[in-house]
Amino acid sequence: MDNKHKKMKQAMQMSKVNMPFDDFEQRIMGQIADLENAKSKALSDRKYAIIFFLLGSICGILLNNYWMNRLEVMETMATYRNYTMILSQIVFVVLICSFCHQLWKLIKIQRDKSYQ
After folding, report:
1. What is the pTM for the complete model shown?
2. Are 28 and 22 contacting, i.e. CB atoms less than 8 angstroms apart?
């Protein structure tokens, strides 16, 4: 019985892990807490990104509509007016597509991080 006790004690001492630094555990736990805080902040940032994207899109549509009405009233040549209207609409579409792409990447990053 005493021999088994000594073997068990030796086996338990072999499984003992020595910490490389005295504050190793506190640093690791701090990093885990920081990671959890960053995840919750990213979720909040995603909500703000969606809200401001929608607000920006609505304001952009209204501004573009206002600009189109102003251009129709202006007394300029029809070709210049048409080119200006098309250019402003292209700029608006490019901005919306760019913002959609950025929002899509943000949502994809969040989804990928939540699965890990």
Report:
1. 0.50
2. no
